[in-house]
Design goal:
about 250 residues; 5-stranded antiparallel β-sheet
Length: about 250
Amino acid sequence: MAIGTYFEPGAIAWNDQGQTTFGRLFLSEIITTASGQRLTANYLNSGYVQRGIARYTPAWGPTYVPLSDNERVYVVQNGQVTAQYPLPKAGQQQMPIPSDGYLIIDRGSQIPAGVLAVGTTINVNGRSTPEAFNAFPHGMGAGPLLIDQGRIVLNAAGEGFSSAFQQQRASRSAIAVDRNGNIILVASHNRVGGAGASLGEFAQILQQLGAVNALNLDGGSSTSLALGGQLLDRSPVTAARVSNAIGVFVR
């Protein structure tokens, strides 16, 4: 799950029974050392770069590459800090993410010297708001949230999206559910002779399709809908390579 704590982005969570919950998710993590010192981690597996403390688990991938200059990485294995290094330049020096632990990234010198010295034992506790998210083992942050309980609740500015993004008309994608809990995956493109949908128009389209909860995903050239390995909504020539996707599989 990629979630930030400075604002409340739209998110979806689900369980292995196919149940879902949607909302604007606030996730906080408290890192506590054996001596009782406490640090707040601002981000979990997130590409949204801001000053603060972030944590990256194997769910992010096998390695981490610094996303900004002058980061510091703390390697944690089996609940203990095993190493720490400076990461001077963004985009350089791949760091393996341990399978039995995670990386803590300090941006802006938020961690006082010595607090996470090598050998320090630490514990991480997280809490989700709304609490409904705590009952679901899988989740994904995206946004903005478009529909909640049948109502259009679009508030891109409140979720931290830029003015340019809010005003953009573009190809769009979304995940939604109807009143029976059926998953709806939607991709939309440019209208005939004109630009694509605004966020508000996209929310209305989803509502007309029967969505009672809906979350906006990525847009533009990464908007792709495939079935059985075949792109349905565009030519492969126009489709961007994407780093992640939502897959639905029949067992």
